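A favour, since you know our structure tokens better than I do. Could you add the entry underneath, on a fresh line?
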Amino acid sequence: MASNHRNNANKKLKHHRNQDSDDYEGNPEAWATLDKNFKQVQSVLDRNRALIQQVNENHQSKIPNNMVKNVALIQELNGNISKVVSLYSDMSSNFSSTFHQQHSNGHTRED
């Protein structure tokens, strides 16, 4: 059942992406920026995964010094979460601005 829901969601996403690509294929710079931003987000998320693994190992060790290290690791995690939120916010604003700019300049699928 969950697999079916996921497949339907993927089909809708692909359909939506194909429609949007008609609007944006003429703007490779916008796509390059979006790609760069997604890579930045992925880099931060990968770092968070490593931090979480280290926090878990430190916690399981029950060694006092490792528990102290977790404070800094968790602070870094919190900062990284804020960074991801900011990156997504910037991406949304940039993507929206590009969309509205192209449509206000008369670039539509009907052209």
Summary: The helical segments are 2-24, 28-61, 64-104. The first helix runs from residue 2 to 24. The chain is about 90% helix and 0% strand.
